[in-house]
Write a structure and sequence with these properties.
The chain has one domain: 3-Layer(aba) Sandwich (Rossmann fold). Helix content is 39%, strand content 24%. It contains eight helices and seven strands; from the N terminus they run H-H-H-H-E-H-E-H-E-E-H-E-H-E-E. Helix 2 packs antiparallel against helix 6. It binds S-adenosylmethionine. The site of S-adenosylmethionine has 17 residues, from strand 2. Its EC number is 2.1.1.170. It catalyses: guanosine(527) in 16S rRNA + S-adenosyl-L-methionine = N(7)-methylguanosine(527) in 16S rRNA + S-adenosyl-L-homocysteine.
């Protein structure tokens, strides 16, 4: 048995997330792929397996319930863009946990987008795609645009604004409440919720800043 399976299951229980055995296997296989490819591709600075579990996997898993909550009114299929996704965080985790969401992970670094494509093929995730591009150049529209460890709220929303569908929302994963970044946002972006997160075993502050385009009279 994978030594990370028990702590992963424990973390999922703490997050109140019920996943299938197949989804749990995919999450563990994803970590395995990061570990394998990072030796060649330098995908992440976090390399110890236990640390990868808390800092990458559980940290990303903490957004699943809040994301589902935002999408409860959804009747149609949703598309989510994960900006500056790197090794696929949180995009790949969202694709594994939410097969009903189509997830595109965009990154300017070709080998990172290629890695996400490899994950999609290896883990048979037909709802996941790695896109090699600058986010500013994308023309598709997404109902949710997410980021983690990417840029200031101002740059994130500015660079990805054209990719946001009508009535779409931004989901920015941050550490402690980013009051200064929020104050620097232009008037055409409104923060509608700052949601505190508890990441099992992490012992650090985490939040999601939810934003949407502001209606300007
Ligand atoms: C610090 S990494 C974060 C990776 C991942 N989200 C995570 O949490 O581990 C930021 C990523 O943003 C990518 N990036 C920077 N500018 C970008 C842009 N304009 N469009 C798309 N990706 C970009 C970088 O190549 C890098 O992989």
């Amino acid at each position: 048995m994978n030594t990370l399976e028990a702590p992963l299951r424990q973390g999922l229980a703490e997050l109140g997330l019920a996943l299938t055995d197949e989804q749990i296997t995919r999450l563990l296989d994803y970590l395995g792929l990061i570990q394998k490819w990072t030796k060649v591709y330098n995908l992440t600075a976090v390399r110890a397996p236990a640390e990868m579990l808390t800092h990458h996997l559980l940290d990303s898993l903490a957004v699943i319930k809040p994301l589902r909550h935002q999408l409860t009114d959804a009747t149609s299929a949703f598309k989510l863009l994960d900006v500056g996704s790197g090794a696929g965080l949180p995009g790949v985790v969202i694709a594994i946990c939410c097969p009903e969401i189509t997830v595109h992970c965009v990154d300017t670094v070709a080998k990172k987008a290629a890695f996400v494509q490899q994950v999609a093929v290896t883990l048979k995730l037909s709802n996941l795609r790695g896109v090699h591009a600058r986010v500013e150049s994308l023309t598709d529209k997404y109902q949710v645009v997410s980021s983690r460890a990417f840029a200031s709220l101002k740059d994130f929303t500015n660079w990805s604004a054209q990719a946001l569908a009508e009535q779409g929302i931004w989901m920015a994963m941050k550490g402690k409440h980013p009051a200064e970044e929020m104050a620097a946002l232009p008037s055409n972006v409104s923060v509608f919720h700052v949601e505190q997160l508890e990441v099992p075993g992490l012992g650090a502050e985490r939040c999601i800043v939810w934003m949407r385009p502001a209606l300007i009279a």
